[in-house]
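thread: overnight batch results

M.L. [08:02]
morning all. the overnight job finished for the chain we discussed friday. pasting input first so we're all looking at the same thing
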Amino acid sequence: MRHAPGPSNTILVGQATALDYVNARREEVGLPLIALDDGLAAAAAAHAKYLDLNRVGTHDEVAGNPGFTGVDVITRVRLHTPAYGASEVLAVFGGPRPVDAPIEDIFASPYHRGAILFDWARAGEASLVGSSAVTVVDFADIAPTLSDTELVAWPYDGQRQVPTSWVNNEQPDPMGADARYRGQVLGFPITLSGGPNAHIDLRSVELRDQRGKKIACRIAPLTATDAARNTAICTPYEPLHTGTRYTVHALGRVTQLGKVAPFDLAWAFTTREDARLAPSVVAQSRSQ
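M.L. [08:03]
and the structure it wrote out:
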């Protein structure tokens, strides 16, 4: 497991741009920063406008609708810059809010977090406030960083001020097809992310509080067609306690490019002192 150097000293949380926030989180776990790309920013801006005009929150666009520029992410990106691969994360809020806040909610969503911690080389973003508040971040091309069996944990070992909860409005749903968890306040998801072709088989997760009490969490169901399988997730069924140290023990195996390696990882993190909950957000992630 990659060891985190600790909180960023060069990029501060609360910057005006989503990419600043993304790079600050990547720096915390020792990942390289993603370069800003104007072409990707233009693609993100076009899609943000489409979402606002049509009052939708999807990655796909429908030909003939107002603001249409391309059916899918890779098509829209290639209108502005050459790219052999692309991904997109987005959030749509029902009403106006500060443009620097949605990226925090996007990152809390575990599959989106996996996309943000992925080996992307460049990115562009757009935020607008119209009939709703929209944030779109487009990524392109891979800059391999992690070794074939290396994993990145979030929360990372020694992390402090970890959120206690999260509203499950993500697609795909990390809780599986059981609709009773949609829109529910759950504990902050724990993720393990690997390289571009990693398949992480998370066999068990033991989460305990500082008194040794075991906290139940649900491992995200995984299928062969899951586009986000390079990120494994375990989501606590209930919000975590504030100001509490938690230990994690995760067992499984990671497969990448024919290499199979078991992992047995243990680490700890501490939740923040307050129980602030981010407003509900419709968040979606897609890679192509």
